[in-house]
Amino acid sequence: xxxxxKISEGPWSxxxxxxxxxxxxxxxxxxxxxxxxxAYEMDNNIPKGAVMEVYKVFYSKADLNAFIETLxxxxxxxxxxxxxxxxxxxxxxxxxxxxxxxxxxxxxxxEKAWKNMEVGARLLREVSKAYDVELSVLSDxxxxxxxxxxxxxxxxxxxxxxxxxxxxxxxxxxxxxxQPQGSNISSATEIMLGLTQDHALxxxxxxxxKRSLVLGSKKEDRLHAFQVLIEGALLSNIPCVILDxxxxxxxxxxxTKNTATLQGQGIDIxxxxxxxxxxxxxxxLKIDLSLVNPKGLTEALGIGGVEIQTFIEAxxxxxxxxxxxxxxxxxxxxxxxxxxxxFYLNKVVRMLSLLDVSxxxxxxxxxxxxxxxxxxxxxxxxxxxxxxxxxxxRTALMVTHSLTxxxxxxxxRQGVSGKVRTFLVIPEAARMVGxxxxxxLTREIIELLDATDNSDVGFMLGADHEIDLSFKLVQKVDxxxxxxxxxxxxxxxxxxxxxxxxxxxxxxxxxxxxxLPQPGVPITPNSPTPQxxxxxxx
Length: 538
Description:
By secondary structure, the chain is of the alpha+beta class. It has helices spanning 65-68, 103-130, 143-151, 153-160, 219-235, 259-264, 294-300, 306-318, 324-332, 342-358, 369-372, 393-413, 430-433, 440-450, 471-474; strands spanning 13-20, 23-29, 35-43, 46-60, 75-82, 85-93, 97-100, 136-137, 168-171, 174-181, 190-195, 201-205, 211-215, 240-244, 276-278, 383-387, 422-426, 457-463, 479-485, 488-493, 499-503. The protein has an eleven-stranded mixed beta sheet with strand order 12-11-21-20-19-13-18-17-14-16-15. Strands 1, 2, 3, 4, 5, 6, 7, 8, 9 and 10 form a ten-stranded antiparallel beta sheet that branches. α7 packs across α8, α9 (324-332) runs antiparallel to α10 (342-358) and α12 runs parallel beside α14. It is globular and about 90 Å long. It starts with 12 loop residues before the first strand and ends in a 35-residue tail after the last strand.
């Protein structure tokens, strides 16, 4: 149970506590019977942040079908039939927003949410008068009607989950139908890109960006374009796994303060911060030995000698080891043979032990891909940020390979839906899949990304120019954003004529508001600098 801050419009009483889709949920009600929904992001049982939404519930006896089709904003409609009585409820929300679990931030976010909800509630009542639909707030209806709304668990599911269309429950003489209406971020399947010269807001289907490139201009301009694309994916409840060399994408957890700019661009969504979680190697992200390319690994680590390379490659292929310590144990149990003397086996043990010391905890077992590619709540996807700034080039390459292969294997096991279910975002793709790269791991990453046609994984790559990237991947791209200067951008979608626009302001704090750190500062002990090729360890 999370202690609620002293939020205004109270007192707030908890009416539901539990979990939906594995996420801790709390639902509160105040004397006006307004509702406050909190979906928590927990870290060691301590709230790190929450997706918040405020609702007002109306009751009506009238048929609502014609009425709700005229509404310009999102509402949830619940119709409950019990015996000879039909009860209809309209729920108008503030639209969800993510907030870090800190008192002042939560209080400020609630005030914005409450005002937004009140605006929607007033609009609902004004439109209802034109249709002779009488709406009563939940606090003014008989207790039996309120009980009908609160007593059914599907009410919580409708408020908490992201796409409740088609939820039906039958049994015990009653049926419930949940139907979201309208179109805003709770049903977004498009990316809002920006404004044309005629000041028209351009929206494109998210599916067109399954394989996309961001090219040209300065690095800062490309990062802004990436942020626009990532926000579009997150608003469609598609998680993004971001390889972040500059440790800047955590800024997306904070709403932008440029509200006036957004409004001037015709963006009718409140600034929001997006939920994110960092996965730092080696603490939260490992190199999975079960997925490793043995030749690529020995090559990346600079293990010299064909004979010993062949031995380690065979060792990895023939044995399932969770980490290097287990691999060392396997070698120690081997019997000496004419081909592999005791001295030779001891040499391999020392080599593997040195790797474990040089990269402590890095070769540590399976990654929690379910957590890394996790959807979030209330139609807001979560960003999984992988900081690479403190890693040398070969470690970053090995981590990228293990992560890419792991994601594709993870979604392959779940079957292909034909939709994008997660994006792998590599803003500095030339570092990993550049045209000048020829390592075994690089070639396999290219093959893995090339195979995303038959996967629910999409990718977003960035570079100065197309020629900086693997030609094979460039040929697979569906959409290109060519940054001309600043936010001036040309958009090329396969099968369409190129058009030009000004990229929109971001809803979250810009990842380039602060100066970007200078690249190339070596931090990891016992590792080569990012600017130099990997040296042999052995």
